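Researcher: First entry.
Model:
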Amino acid sequence: MLFFKTKKPILSEVREETQDNVDLQIINKMNQEFAISLDLNETLNTALQIIITRLNAQAANIFLINTKTNKFECIASLNQEHLDEYQLDLKDGVMGKAVEQRKCVRVGNVRKDVREIAEFYFDLDNKTNFTTYSVLCAPLIAANDCIGVIHCLNKKTDEKLFIEDDRKLLELLSTPAALAIRNAKMAKEMIEQNKVQKEVEIVGEIQKSLLSSNKKESFPLAGINIPAKVVSGDFYNFNDLGNGKYGFGVADVSGKGIKSSLLMSKASSLYSCLSKTNFSPASLITQLNNEICETISRGMFVTMLIGIYDSNADNLLLANAGHEPPIIMDQDGNFSNFEEAGPPLGIVKKTEYKEYKINFEKSSMYIFTDGITEIKNPEGNELGSKGFENYITRFKDKPNNERLKLIIDNVLNSKYIQKDDLTIVVVDSK
């Protein structure tokens, strides 16, 4: 909340003419000042300075409606403190009446007004060390929505009481103030959104750097990841272990958005670190599960498949934690699936995962996330495993890197609509 000190008022720039002309000039001046500022703090300061000076009020506040709590929140104040410590009900006091009636309300003398209004101000005065005598309150209405109120207290006269002309004037002044506050508030939100978007883009770039780069054509592994948005909940990694062996891991984090992407980054970092010293898929995936279980948010999990390809022995070692069964195509173009799997990572700590050895001669294995098989066309039909296999068959003779790009491009060019991250890793036996 902002507390302002008075400064040289804008009113000094207005010629002394008839009061009606002066008021019109004030409104024009407000519009001019507001037109050149989209800074919310500056707009609030300007609005309160003009209003409190013209009305000769002792104090003035701006309360905006918090749509989440359904309460009034004081976001700016002149000459009255501590209001930011309280959230006021939308039905309380004159502010509630102004919102309900959608017009400026005047209480000539709080001490003689209706009991509920008097009690409200007596209670608020005790909390803020302020004595309220008279009140003006105008709703802030912009684009037909009431976004809050301007609240003025005590005229600087011997009687300290506002009159009807004051009410009419505040009603006039509240219109340009409401539009300006709405525009400044929207500008602030857009700036914050852009800032968040920039941060998201940075996260996306960091995530890309965590993925393995495709190697020369003779390398038996290749991968591709197309995020549905800027950040991804998918991950893959592969590396040369030496002696004709190659390690790889593919993962998919539950959910979408920043939360999922952060968990993905954690899982990928853990994998990159632990895989340098642990060459057993079962042992590695068990270790990853224990680490992820320590900090994972409730309801989230990670599916992951880890493997080692031994090109000398023509076999694969695989361990699967709830991931999609990979598709294997043999040299004759026949397809099969590796179905064995344990529970996803992050659900049950100390789960012991099993390791499986399969023959892998003159074959290709495709490890993927469900974004590829569950992608839908405009009619709502999924691509499915069979559709995916058709694309694999179509481009099976292409180098692995080119093959994956062709599969993804052709799926998307066939009017399938991407709503989830698309990730494929292929392992080709030599």
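Researcher: Second entry.
Model:
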Amino acid sequence: MNQKAVRSWIMYDWANSAFVTTMVAAVLPIFYADVAAAGLPDYLKTSYWGYTQTIGMVCVALIAPILGAIADVSGYKMIFLRLFAYLGIAASAAFVFVGEGDYLLASFLFILGTIGFSGGNTFYDSLLRDLVPENKRDMVSSKGYSYGYLGGGLLLAVNLLMIMKPGWFGLADTLQGTYLAFLSVAVWWFVFSIPIFRHVGPLIPRPEVKLSFARNVSAGASRLFSTFKRIRQYPELLKYLLAFWLFNDGINTVITMATIYGATIGIGTDHLIAALLITQFVAFPFTLLFGRIAEKFSPMKSLYFSLGVYVVIISLGYFMQTAAHFYMLAVMVGMVQGGSQAVARSIFSRLVPKRQSAEFFGFLGVSSKLSSSFGPFVFGVVGQLFHSSRIGILALLVFFIGGIAMLTTVNLNKGREQAEEADKAMAAV
């Protein structure tokens, strides 16, 4: 295992997590409502922001498997990773041109940024199998997530200071601090992406026979169609995907709905932001810890434990009353959020054939993006029917309990054997 390449791979999580924390979770939503969508009724601001996120996820869901298939056929994983990273970086920087009332421009740039971030991750995730032996993937995957939480959290803390105390940075007002925060995301993402481009790129073999772009697209699309047929050949992978759709939807819904849920029950904005930072920094050491636990016991046991903690979090969330309760739940989320995601990614890498890793990780990208829309929908519908957001949060138990139940049917060793046999068959052709 090339240690420099692995460290460079990990640093990309540190790099692009700035987009998640600053652009997705904390700064941009407020900017969108107060500046970009200024003059619109409040309900339209939230609706347009929701539509923007939906469009971004749908775009990623549509292109990710095609791009993954193309990358597997052409061998140009690093080229695609670089292109999508630059797209996300450029979109983040371009927010400095968004002024009052420019909500259409802001939505367009966010969609481009989402495509850049998520599209790049399709190729980034698939590199895990190329760079790391199976017995080390749990730890390396966990390190990637943990450093992502740390890096994204550090930059978010600085960005919040820029916005709340602009004078400390020689800025005139909060708006200038916000624009500088957007620029900082672009610079941070670009600078810390350099290692993976320099040290990993040369290690990924290029195909002996070069095909034209049109031929690559055709080959990739053909393989995508075949993926839906071949999925039946990997029954353990299929069962794991079904489980993943459920529990991943629950996790993403907790991430996306926690802040608004806290606001509806009277938790102050300062407490909500502080809790977000706490989650980021708690996630760093505990994601590393989960990697150790997965190595010592098993990745499946580690995943079971994290999902069980989420069941406890949802149950306690129903009874939450004060900011202190919210802080407690933020700590609990930080303890399992990164670990569950890292271990889930590592398990998936065991179940896919190496020669089709990008294609199958693209399929995983589709799964996660499409499934992520159901949780918030259920939360909203149940909350509306019962006139209570507390009942809405309680409804998320269905996703975690269902995911755990489906996960019990997965035989990891058998699934790994199926993937290895498929690789041998493809190598013999």
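Model: Note on the second entry: The domain at 3-203+220-428 is CATH 1.20.1250.20 (Growth Hormone; Chain: A;).
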